[in-house]
Design brief:
The chain is α/β, with parallel strands linked by helices. Helices cover about 35% and strands about 15% of the residues. The strands form three sheets. It has an eight-stranded mixed sheet. The chain has a four-stranded parallel sheet with strand order 2-1-3-4, with helices on both faces. β3, α6 and β4 form a beta-alpha-beta unit. It is globular and about 75 Å long.
Length: about 575
């Protein structure tokens, strides 16, 4: 029988769950909340104090990676009911990498606000985050971290491996490779149409180690997802099983009162940085983890990324750094097998959502294919991680992914060929008259958080057509943009401060000499300070993009890349206090 509680006793409020503030209230207030939910066929006893679990769903037909989330949500609900909870699914903004313009990164913070306010405003005691496509994982985790309730992430899983004319192709990575082949005349448009059907043959995220797979690995390493979350293919029945188990476990987390901040510790973030190095993870992970850490008050910096990941080799032979795909990673033992190799480098006692330490979850995990997961003493590549560069061209830092770069170009000095913005690049890159040779450094400005706007993945500049035709396959490229995690090349991204706010990148001119030295972590513009000072006086910021709506909010408050590109007013967490009950 339902026992109604007075809603004006502070002691009662401290003892009760959040959802009881809605459903156990006396009089009209409680009746209002219970009655409307009963239109879904819920019996009286589900309001008798059982944990209410919010299932935060980013399903959208405009987000192909998350096309199977309706099924996953139903599997989570099974587990919640089984464990004695009340599952209530709610939608939030879905960020589809393949369709949204100008960039999903523009909307990551908006989605995080949607998540945060949806959780805080509703009778939720714990939450399952259904995340898949690139920005959904950080956005959901940022929003949930701001509320700090018991939380589990369930990733959607990667697509099945792409198969094209007798070889494996990886989503994203194949786009960049085949795009250049099309540009060189080696493929026809008919070939492209055939390829795209072979590449995307199931629901799920990119099956390369792009940002989606990287973030799925990192949430498991952070301890906020159940073991094996990272690599089970979306189409594999074991992904549904994991969803069922996730539903059970979130109820236990609520009963044990384990807030998200108990898991997102300094040690957890350090484990994630180390693991990112070992998987050859996306450079985007640096931006996202900095933002998530900022939400829970962990002082994480780019210097930490370089310090912790610098000497960690790449153990995973996976596109774009290698040749295999996420399905192969799963069959080889998945993330538990890779973490077992890293044991000596990790904080083994870091807690996880299943109540055990990280090491307890992976100790004894075996690798079943040494051509996919390499041992620590015989790594796949000596350089993993994200190298953080500084110098007069990037005073606040820039990033490069050594495992995806050409070794011969990681120490390079060349003449700048400058593009004012992405439109300028599109107009001129294939002009036969462009003054460029393979030793040049392609420089793209005004594509950072404020400049584009939205911090797009345009840093992987396709090479000039005439150089591709001559057999050139890589050049040094520098920008304040991001690069897709599925892409490879000697590409420096996230230059901070960005050009649009007057960073030194804004002052680079055609013909300037630029020195890149990854080993010394140096990015240097060989122009005297006096000349840079004169250029700065002549520089004027680009005109504003918008004067209204979300874009104005974004431009007024977005932080630079080295701060995670979060909003300044969202750093730190607000908790999940229950607001007044008036309507």
């Amino acid at each position: 029988m339902l026992v109604a509680m007075a809603d004006d006793d502070p002691a009662d409020k401290d003892r009760r769950s959040r959802s009881a503030r809605w459903f156990a209230a006396a009089g009209r207030e409680g009746m209002l909340h219970r009655s409307w939910l009963k239109n879904q066929g819920l019996p009286d006893d589900v309001f008798d104090g059982r944990p209410v679990i919010g299932i935060c769903n980013t399903f959208s037909e405009l987000t192909p990676c998350n096309a199977h989330f309706r099924t996953l949500a139903e599997r989570v609900k099974r587990g919640v009911w089984e464990a004695g909870g009340l599952p209530l699914e709610f939608p939030v903004m879905s960020l589809g990498e393949s369709l949204m313009r100008p960039s999903t990164m523009l909307f990551r913070n908006l989605c995080s606000m949607d998540v945060e306010e949806s959780i805080r405003a509703n009778p939720i005691d714990g939450v399952v985050l259904l995340a898949g496509c690139d920005k959904t994982t950080p956005a959901l985790l940022m929003g949930a971290a701001s509320c700090d309730l018991p939380t589990i992430v369930l990733s959607g899983g990667p697509m099945l491996s792409g198969k094209f004319r007798g070889r494996d192709i990886g989503s994203g990575t194949a786009v960049w490779q085949l795009g250049d082949q099309l540009k060189r005349g080696e493929l026809t448009q008919a070939d492209v149409l055939e390829m795209e059907s072979c590449m995307s043959r199931s629901a799920g995220t990119c099956m390369t180690m792009g940002t989606a797979s990287t973030m799925a690995v990192l949430v498991e390493t952070l301890g906020v997802a159940l073991p094996t979350n990272a690599a089970i293919p979306a189409a594999d029945s074991r992904r549904n099983t994991l969803a069922h188990l996730t539903g059970r476990q979130i109820v236990q987390l609520v009963r044990d009162d384990v807030p998200l901040s108990r898991l997102l510790t300094r040690q957890a973030f350090e484990n994630a940085i180390i693991t990112n190095a070992a998987i050859g993870g996306s450079a985007n992970a640096a931006v996202h983890l900095l933002a998530i850490a900022g939400r829970v008050g962990v002082d994480l910096t780019l210097a930490d990324w370089d310090r912790l990941g610098r000497d960690v080799p790449c153990l995973l032979n996976l596109m774009p750094s290698g040749k295999y795909l996420m399905e192969d990673f799963f069959y080889a033992g998945g993330l538990p097998a890779l973490l077992a190799e890293l044991g000596a480098l990790l904080h083994k006692d870091a807690p996880t959502v299943n109540g055990h330490s990280l090491w307890h979850n992976v100790e004894g995990a075996r690798c079943w294919n040494r051509d996919v997961i390499f041992p620590l003493d015989r790594p796949f590549k000596r350089h993993g991680g994200i190298a953080v560069l500084t110098g007069n061209l990037a005073p606040s830092g820039a990033a490069i992914k050594p495992s995806a770069a050409t070794p011969e170009l990681m120490k390079h000095r060349g003449r700048a060929v400058v593009f004012a913005d992405i439109d300028d690049y599109d107009r001129r890159i294939d002009d036969p008259a462009l003054d460029v040779d393979p030793s040049c450094v392609l420089v793209l400005k005004n594509c950072g958080p404020r400049g584009y706007p939205g911090f797009p993945e345009v840093g992987l500049l396709s090479l000039p057509k005439k150089l591709l035709a001559a057999g050139v396959r890589d050049m040094v490229r520098i920008s304040d943009a991001r690069m897709s995690g599925t892409a490879a090349g000697t590409v420096v991204v996230h230059v901070a401060p960005e050009a649009a706010v007057g960073g030194p990148l804004a002052l680079v001119q055609d013909g300037d000499l630029i020195e890149l030295d990854v080993e010394r972590r140096r990015l240097h513009l060989e122009v005297p300070d006096e000349e840079l000072g004169r250029r700065k006086v002549r520089w004027s910021p680009p005109p504003p993009h918008e004067t209204r709506g979300y874009l104005k909010l974004y431009l007024d408050h977005v932080l630079q890349a080295d701060r995670g590109a979060d909003f300044d007013f969202l750093v730190g967490r607000s908790g999940a206090r229950v607001f007044r009950g008036n309507h």
